[in-house]
Amino acid sequence: MFSGFMVNAWEVASIVAVVAGVVGFFTVLRGSAFAAHAIPNGSFAGAAGASLVGVSTLLGLGVFALAGALGIGLLGRRGRHDVATALALVMMLGLGALFLGFSEEYAPAVYSLLFGEVLGISSNDVAPTAILGLLCILAIAVLYRPLMLSSILPEVGEAHGVSRFRMEMLFLTVLALATAMTVPVVGTLLIFSLMIGAPAAARSFTDSPPVAMALSVVFALLIVWIAIAASYETNYPIGFFVGTGSAVSYTLGRGWAAWRARREPVAHDIRPEPG
Amino acid sequence: MSHFLTPVFAPGFFQSEAVHIALGVGTLVAIATGTVGVFTVMRGQSFAGEAFGDIGTTGGSGAFLVGVGPLWGFVVGNLLAAAAMETIGIQRTRGRDLATGIVLGASIGLAALFLYLTTTEQSTTGATVTILFGSAFAIAGSTVPLILLLSLLVLGLILVLYRPLLLATVSPEMAAARGIPVRTIGILYLLALALAAALAAITIGSILGTALLVGPAASALRLTKRPLIAMLTAAGMGIGAMWLGVVLAYDSYEWPPVGHGWPVSFFVVTLVLVLYLLSGLPARRHRRGSDDPYSASPTLHAVPESR
Amino acid sequence: MSENILAVQSVDVRLSGRTILDQVSFDVAPGEFTGLIGSNGAGKTTLFRVILGLQSASAGDVLIAGRSRARGHQRVGFVPQKFLLDPDLPLRARDLVGLGLDAHRLGVPRPSRVRRALIEEMLEAVDAGRFADTRVGRLSGGEQQRILIAHALIARPRLLLLDEPLANLDLRSAHEVVALLAKITREQEIAVLISAHEINPLIGVMDRIVYLASGRAVSGTTDEVVRADVLSKLYGHHVDVLNVHGRVLIVAGAGEDTDLAGHEVAFPDTEIVS
């Protein structure tokens, strides 16, 4: 399983896992789960359109993802996402279905775009994925401190000159790039799962942000590696293992947190019971 | 007469049985989803449609695998999801809780597995597309009675529960004070929503179904301040979108690429979006020349939960 | 003597080790206007929720018209303190009032002249005719409150509960609402239990007062209850009652004094309690 074309799969998937872990950490921190779910919908249409036009899928994914991120960032100024956004995103899915319908490889193409297709990763994909991945990680590294501040205490950030809006736009851009590069591996419907499962689990084990981010990457790598191996052995789709893996790691995290809470006596009892 | 109609309705339209079924089913489903959708939007649960969509995908693909019609899968899957939502109280968490998202992710992963197994074990390649994007023209005639029954059930439930549900939506506290069983009503409403989502899934696909559930209702609510009229309007809009979608999809067999046809669900979803954008126009025009002293009043948003 | 419309009997409410209500007992006779006075956190809302059956008591019982609360819901008019009214909620003011008539009945309301007349009459009574057709969510707080009062009263309940209706109103509006309530409920012989943390807007109107402090209650007429000795015992420390031009000021006393157990206690500052 480690030779030949599978090498590409391992390499790309590993890069994807690292990026998902890092970007996912901030996604969970900022509560941007909606964006993480919405942007891939748009990319779906982009990828479908790209294959129709004959352009690289990654390009289509990236362009539409960025457009989606911009849209969400700008519309987000008005407050919570509204019905128009939801409908527009659903329309993107319909558009993607339309584009794919024009091509001949309809059903398999739909399936692999939605759920991922590890075997479809060629050696040509490794380089662009690595570059995009590196870009994402570099961006996060550069933005780390202002992004942390703006995510946790946005008003304090503003006082320090860190524009909340600019951080949001920058983060959404990185998120868009991250989702664009993860689609070929896990599919548009499951990126969300990988991107929040690993960080959500990591949170349960530590309170320190750098450690949480590192753990998040570790969990993401584990999930993806197990998923690839399992997919190779059983031929079942990798998306299935990623979805299940994310759920399992999240449950383990919660279980650990609950067990730890029971062992250590809780000194403070300040939270009021709801209702 | 046929010379006039041919540009609009491609030849064979009125004779095709598939078209009849699509129009009939579309009408029924539009009525059911429009009715429930009004309450869904009022209760601020638009996200629930997406949740049912994801879980419906699993149910539908599971049914396909087992050899049962996807409608059963959607219904059973959605009912189970509704039960889970009720237990966990997902209605109270607006949108995407982490746990919710992860469960939905796992369920989609499961759907991927089911679809894969369907494709390999039954060598049918159309499962993914049929389940996720629907195929209004491929609904079996034998399913129509069930669709009729479910639509009537949904419509009936909402109409019967109308008054107590309305008060419970405005204020669960006030409703409880009047002796209305708020929890029971909530469960029944959720059941109706689950069934309506299943109906939407069979018509335009599981991940596109939200559009029918939420779109026409949201549009109608912008146009009227009477819930009953909103339901009528929503149903009407849904019917309009479905019918026009069916006509366009049928005609599109003549469009490039010839012989292939564009999916019905694409048209329906686009039309629903257009209708929603159009429904925003009257308000905008009104606001420009508005001297309504009662517009934009701040309201208190903290509400003690009654459970 | 006709039976009391509301009988609260030794109600205890304990939550997470805290005692919120401690042996609270009082009665409300038919048509009586009763004020439930207490500062924030004294337990007023909890008491309301127990009376309405929204929360269960750890001990004690609540009887409405002689029937125990536990035996099923009875129709009591209720105006909550905070209400979530989305500005986009598709409900006109008159529709919300109409719901007060028959929200508990299944099905869709059938338009009838009688129904419409009742709604009009109620809207008149609360002076809401001007905005009857506006979406409820678009009305001001005071206007919404009037609609909620109309909603609660249209079904002719025998008991009307209002949870802190005066809390966010200026003094003049508070007096207006109290006058409105007193007028309507007197005409229709509806018993009223109205909670507030400010006693003065209600002083001229209340028949009886239930004073709640630290989960304990004392009930009686204003003269019987609003006295230094009674309130001191209730609060557990010295309290003075000042009467200024007919308005009452309840003030924690300064200087040395003894508390209930006979220990000497000194308070550094005068602190206005109510």
Please, could you describe this protein's structure?
The complex is a heterotrimer of chains A (275), B (307) and C (274). Chain A is mainly alpha-helical and 275 residues long. Chain A has one domain: Orthogonal Bundle (ABC transporter involved in vitamin B12 uptake, BtuC), CATH 1.10.3470. Chain A is 80% helix and 0% strand. In chain A, α2 crosses α8, α3 packs antiparallel against α8 and α5 crosses α8. With 307 residues, chain B is an all-alpha fold. Helices cover 72% and strands 0% of the residues of chain B. Chain C folds into three domains: 146 residues, 3-Layer(aba) Sandwich (Rossmann fold); 60 residues, no CATH class; 38 residues, no CATH class. Chains in contact: A-B, B-C. At the A-B interface, α2, α4, α5, α9 and α11 of A face α5, α6, α10 and α12 of B.
- Average predicted confidence as pLDDT of chain C: 83
Order of helices and strands of chain C: EEEHEEEHHHEHEEEHHEEEEE
First-residue to last-residue Cα separation of chain B: 62 Å
As residue ranges, the low-confidence spans of chain C are: 266-271
Q: Which labels suit this protein?
A:
heterotrimer, A: 275 residues, mainly alpha, ABC transporter involved in vitamin B12 uptake, BtuC, C: 274 residues, alpha/beta, Rossmann fold, 3 domains, six-stranded mixed β-sheet, four-stranded antiparallel β-sheet
In short:
Chain B is mainly α. Chain B contains 13 helices and no strands. Chain B has one domain: ABC transporter involved in vitamin B12 uptake, BtuC.
Compile the SSE list and pairings:
The complex is a heterotrimer of chains A (275), B (307) and C (274).
Chain A: H1 5-30, H2 33-53, H3 57-75, H4 83-102, H5 106-115, H6 123-152, H7 154-159, H8 164-186, H9 191-203, H10 209-234, H11 238-263
Chain B: H1 2-5, H2 17-42, H3 46-66, H4 70-88, H5 98-122, H6 127-133, H7 144-170, H8 172-177, H9 182-204, H10 210-223, H11 227-251, H12 264-279, H13 281-288
Chain C: E1 6-15, E2 18-28, E3 33-37, H1 44-52, E4 59-64, E5 67-68, E6 77-79, H2 93-102, H3 113-125, H4 141-153, E7 159-162, H5 171-188, E8 191-196, E9 208-213, E10 216-220, H6 222-225, H7 228-235, E11 239-244, E12 247-252, E13 255-258, E14 264-267, E15 271-272
Parallel strand pairs in C: 3-8, 3-9, 6-7, 7-8
Antiparallel strand pairs in C: 1-2, 1-4, 4-5, 9-10, 11-12, 12-15, 13-14
Helix pairs in contact in C: 2-3, 2-4
